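Q: Convert this sequence to structure tokens.
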Amino acid sequence: MAYVIRPFSSGDASELASLTLAAIRGVGAISYTPEQVAAWSARHPGPDRFLERVNSGASIFVAADSSDTAMAYALIEPDGHLDMLYCHPDHTRRGLADELLAASEQHARAEGITRLYTEASELARPAFERAGYAVQHRRDFEIPHEGEAVAIHNFAMEKPLN
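A:
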């Protein structure tokens, strides 16, 4: 299947919201417990949040299939924080994360950003490492969910652009 990497359009918001939940619930379940997946997905932003993020200066790059349906995306903030990288479970292992990270880096360089950084999940960590990010440390924290504090972790990673 052929994909194209393109900028976000407002019509993508609902697809990205659904795609994110599918990724967290489908792919996230490989490395995280059902409780962690439930807490993680409950804090996922709805479609309006994508529009708000773009309106506040973030850039979103979308990997779309031949029918222009979003299958993966990356969201980068103006300071070089790569806040989201998600791929629909049916489209993993096809190089989309690598392409989106490359598009995000190209954008960052064009904007004069000198450092990219992220908090990568267990599953996203290898894609970031392939793109040249280095783990700074493991982040252990809790997500409040249904009256409980659910322990979860990710990895603070960064890549200098010089």
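The first strand starts at residue 4 and ends at 7.
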